[in-house]
Amino acid sequence: MPDIKDPLLVMSGIVKQFPGVRALDGVDLEVLPGEVHCLLGQNGAGKSTLIKTLAGAHQPDAGVIRLGGREVRLTGPVAAIRLGISTIYQELDLVDGLSVADNIFLGHEKARFGFTRTAEAHRAASGLLTRLGHGEIPPATEVGALPPAGKQVVSMARALSHDARLIVMDEPSAALAHDEVDNLFRTVRELTAQGVAVVYISHRLEEIREIGDRVTVLKDGRTVAVGLPADTPTREIVSLMTGRDVEHVFPARRDPGSHEGRAEVLRVEGLTVPGVFEDISFAVREGEIVGLAGLVGSGRSEILEAVYGARKASGKVLVDGKPVRGVSSAVRLGLGLAPEERKAQALLLEESVARNITLGGLARYARLGWLDRGSELADAGRQIDELGIRPADPGRPIRTLSGGNQQKAVLARWLVDRRRLLLLDEPTRGVDVGARADLYAVIRRLADEGIGVLLVSSEIPEVLGLADRVLVIRDGRNVHESDARELDEHRVLDLIMEGSAL
Amino acid sequence: MNDTRTPPVGKLPAPVRTLRDRGGLRHLGLVGALVLLCLVGLVTRPDTFATSSNLVTLLALASTIGVITVGMTFVIIGGGIDLSVGSVMALASVWATTVATQSYGPWVMALCALLVGTATGAVSGLLISYGKMVPFIATLAMMAAASGLAQRLSDRRTQLVAPENDAIVALSTTRVLGLPILVYIFAAVVAAGWVLLNRTTFGRRTYAVGGNAEAARLAGIDVRKHTVLLYALSGLCCGIAALVIMARTTAGSSTHGYLYELDAIAAVIIGGTLLTGGRGTIIGSILGLLVFTVITNLFILNGLDTSDQLIAKGLIIVAAVLLQQRTANTS
Amino acid sequence: MNDTRTPPVGKLPAPVRTLRDRGGLRHLGLVGALVLLCLVGLVTRPDTFATSSNLVTLLALASTIGVITVGMTFVIIGGGIDLSVGSVMALASVWATTVATQSYGPWVMALCALLVGTATGAVSGLLISYGKMVPFIATLAMMAAASGLAQRLSDRRTQLVAPENDAIVALSTTRVLGLPILVYIFAAVVAAGWVLLNRTTFGRRTYAVGGNAEAARLAGIDVRKHTVLLYALSGLCCGIAALVIMARTTAGSSTHGYLYELDAIAAVIIGGTLLTGGRGTIIGSILGLLVFTVITNLFILNGLDTSDQLIAKGLIIVAAVLLQQRTANTS
Amino acid sequence: TSNASNDESSASAPALAGTDNDKPGQKVVIGFSAPAADHGWIAAIAKNAEAAAKLYPDVEFKAVEPTNDINQQIAAVESLIDAKVGALVILPNDGQQLNQVARKASDAGIPVVNLDRVFPDKLSYRTWIGGDNYGMGVAAGHYIGAKLKEKGVAKPVILEIQGIATLPLTQDRSKGFADALKTYGFTVTAQQDAQFTVQSGTDVATNLLQAHKKIDALWNHDDDQGVGVLAAIKEANRTEFFMVGGAGSANAMREIKSGSSVLEATVTYSPSMASSAVKLARLIAQGKGMSDLVEQGVPQSITLASETITKDNVDTYLPLGFES
Ligand SMILES: Nc1ncnc2c1ncn2[C@@H]1O[C@H](COP(=O)(O)OP(=O)(O)OP(=O)(O)O)[C@@H](O)[C@H]1O
Ligand SMILES: Nc1ncnc2c1ncn2[C@@H]1O[C@H](COP(=O)(O)OP(=O)(O)OP(=O)(O)O)[C@@H](O)[C@H]1O
Ligand SMILES: [Mg+2]
Ligand SMILES: [Mg+2]
Question: How far apart are alpha carbons B290 and B82 in whole angstroms?
Answer without folding.
Answer: 20
